[in-house]
């Protein structure tokens, strides 16, 4: 231990007064021991959790400079969407990490997949295996009618003879181009021609109302009521092969 004389005369073993004062904080710190932090909060280090992550302060890494703020247009793109919009636009709903199943399985070795199988291979069979056996309840509930046959077989089936897509009279006006529809009315001398066969329809049915102007309808099949409506509106029905 260094003993300092009370006089201020400089001797070979005496330090100046300013050096004595520089030793005093260290001496006080040594004597106060663990009570120093509790009694003097000004000695708290600056890099504590409170100093780094207070909402009013921002931590910046001196080794990595902070990037410049994005322009307003880019900032608008970076703005997170509303939760309702996100739920409608995204088919996947994410779960917070703290609530995920992975966090619940920590400390339980195999995470619910067993020590032998380890979530490998195909424990229920590959593909649709077991639809009539161990997966029968799933097939009966979600895929009824998957197994078996219904009805009779039709040998030498000619699908072309049964081709008959239908269109109703209220949709005939949609087959007329827009530029031809302008100016048409009940007194018009020009009558549009609607070729349903060229449009991909095989039969005209009578649902709905016809437009206010007469129409010439070309079709392969026309129902009785549809033909009556077209003729009552001043139009003509032409049967084509």
Automatic annotation (TrEMBL):
Keyword Glycoprotein found: no
Disordered: region residues: 27-79, 99-135
GO cellular component terms, semicolon-separated: cytosolic large ribosomal subunit
GO molecular-function terms, A-Z: structural constituent of ribosome
One GO BP: translation
Assigned keywords, A-Z: Ribonucleoprotein, Ribosomal protein
Pfam family name, one: Ribosomal_L27A
Stretch forming the signal peptide: none
Domain (Large ribosomal subunit protein uL15/eL18) ranges: 166-237
InterPro entries: Ribosomal_uL15, Ribosomal_uL15/eL18, Ribosomal_uL15/eL18_sf, Ribosomal_uL15_CS
Basic residues compositional bias, start-end: 28-37, 115-124
SUPFAM superfamilies: Ribosomal proteins L15p and L18e
Similarity section: Belongs to the universal ribosomal protein uL15 family.
HAMAP family associated with the record: Ribosomal_uL15
PANTHER family hit by this protein: 60S RIBOSOMAL PROTEIN L27A, LARGE RIBOSOMAL SUBUNIT PROTEIN UL15
Record's protein name: Large subunit ribosomal protein L27Ae
Lineage of producing organism: Eukaryota, Fungi, Dikarya, Basidiomycota, Pucciniomycotina
């Amino acid at each position: 231990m260094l003993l300092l004389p009370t006089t201020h005369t400089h001797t070979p073993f005496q330090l100046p007064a300013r050096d004595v004062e520089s030793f005093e904080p260290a001496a006080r710190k040594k004597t106060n021991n663990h009570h120093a932090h509790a009694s003097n909060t000004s000695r708290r280090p600056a890099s504590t959790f409170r100093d780094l992550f207070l909402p009013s302060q921002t931590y910046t890494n001196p080794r990595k400079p902070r990037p410049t703020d994005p322009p307003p247009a880019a900032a608008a793109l970076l703005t997170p969407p509303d939760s309702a919009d996100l739920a409608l636009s995204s088919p996947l709903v994410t779960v917070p990490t703290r609530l995920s199943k992975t966090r619940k399985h920590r400390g339980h070795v195999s995470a619910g997949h067993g020590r032998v199988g380890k979530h490998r291979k195909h424990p229920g069979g590959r593909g649709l295996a077991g639809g009539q056996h161990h997966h029968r309840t799933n097939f009966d509930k979600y895929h009824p009618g998957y197994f078996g046959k219904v009805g009779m077989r039709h040998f030498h089936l000619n699908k072309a003879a049964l081709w008959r897509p239908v269109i109703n009279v209220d949709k005939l006006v949609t087959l007329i181009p827009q530029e031809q529809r302008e100016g048409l009315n009940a007194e018009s001398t020009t009558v549009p021609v609607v070729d349903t066969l060229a449009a991909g329809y095989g039969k005209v049915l009578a649902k709905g109302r016809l437009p206010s102007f007469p129409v010439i309808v070309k079709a392969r099949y026309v129902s009785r009521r549809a033909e009556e409506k077209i003729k009552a509106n001043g139009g003509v029905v032409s049967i084509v092969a």
